[in-house]
Design goal:
This protein starts with a helix and ends with a helix. The strands form 2 sheets. Strands 1-2-6-5 form a 4-stranded antiparallel sheet. The protein has a two-stranded antiparallel sheet with strand order 3-4. The chain folds into 2 domains: 2-54, no CATH class; 80-256, NADH Oxidase. The chain is globular, with a radius of gyration of 26 Å. Helices cover 47% and strands 13% of the residues. By secondary structure, it is of the alpha+beta class. The protein has 11 helices and 6 strands. It has helices at residues 2-6, 15-29, 34-54, 67-82, 97-107, 127-148, 151-157, 168-171, 197-214, 228-233, 265-268; strands spanning 119-124, 174-181, 183-185, 191-193, 218-222, 240-249. The protein binds 3-iodo-tyrosine. 3-iodo-tyrosine (IYR) binds next to helix 6. Residues 141, 144, 157, 160, 162, 222-225 line the site of 3-iodo-tyrosine.
């Protein structure tokens, strides 16, 4: 009776191991009372599900570098990233599609809570859709600059010389609307909860910005607040929350950027 109950669960790579051990355990528990036998079975079912469902491991593809190469890589990567600047004046020139796709694929390699990959990217290149986004964003931004933002916030924005007008939303060739998925819906329509969604999408967005920068494109991390209009215009499901609008393209000719300073290593870190 117990044996036939457990067999359907004892499948996969570890099935044999489970069955063998089950036999031994069964022998021990045959004379025990029903409760003990049942908890033994539950334990085995749990072990079997855990082992067969999640243990698909492959060797890590890792090439160890010597220290000289590590130093050189870290220096050149830092220099590359130090040159990245957020811009607000874009050329209207189109960008190579494959470059965009590769950057998005790189973003899709990001670590995420329980590997749920809780992001969705909508790449907007259609002029009419960009126009609708600009219109909706400027309505929210006007509210922000005129009413919602505190004096302290407006003061913090002064060096950036921003205002409620967002012409780049129409001029830049690409708007990447990044959505955070609170749930993932599988092919049978079942909802699965995602974990650490803002951390995961934040990391993916960072990788996307880095990949675009490395590929020769500039970005602007734009966060009109609130951003609900993005989900509506782009017809995203209710369990996706607009996370950021990443404006992407080539810089306009002779673009100027605020002369900001980055904090030093000493200021941003503590080694213990
Ligand atoms: N979303 C507004 C305001 C703004 C807020 C922050 I914090 C910035 O770093 C920059 C702008 C805008 O895009 O103008």
């Amino acid at each position: 009776m117990c044996h036939s109950l457990i067999i359907p669960f004892a499948t996969g790579v570890y099935g044999e191991f489970i069955v063998t051990n089950l036999m031994n355990f069964q022998a021990c528990f045959l004379l025990a009372n029903g409760t003990a036998v049942r908890s033994c079975l539950k334990l085995f079912i749990l072990m079997e599900l855990t082992l067969t469902n999640s243990l698909d491991f492959i060797p890590l593809d890792f090439k160890r570098q010597n220290e000289e190469s590590m130093l050189q890589e870290s220096q050149s990567f830092y220099q590359l990233m130090a040159q990245r600047r957020t811009i607000r004046d874009f050329s209207d020139q189109n960008v190579p599609q494959e470059v965009l796709e590769n950057a998005l694929k790189a973003a899709g390699t990001s670590p995420s809570g329980a590997n749920m990959q809780p992001w969705h990217f909508v790449i907007v290149q259609d002029a009419a859709v960009k126009k609708r986004i600009r219109k909706a964003a400027e309505i929210e931004e006007r509210e922000l600059y005129e009413h919602r933002a505190s004096d302290e916030w407006l003061q913090a924005l002064t060096p950036l010389a921003t205002d409620a007008n967002k012409p780049f939303l129409e001029i830049a060739p690409v708007l990447i609307a990044i959505f955070l998925k609170k749930f993932t819906v599988d092919t049978s329509g079942e909802k699965h909860k995602n974990y650490y969604t803002s951390e995961s999408v934040g990391i993916a967005t960072g990788i996307l910005i880095t990949a675009l920068h490395k590929s020769g494109l500039a970005t602007l991390t734009h966060t009109p607040s609130p951003m609900k209009f993005l989900g509506k215009i782009l017809e995203r499901p209710s369990y996706e929350r607009p996370y950021m609008l990443l404006v992407c393209g080539y810089p306009a000719d002779d673009v100027m950027v605020p002369n900001i300073k980055r904090r030093t290593l000493q200021e941003i870190s503590t080694f213990i």
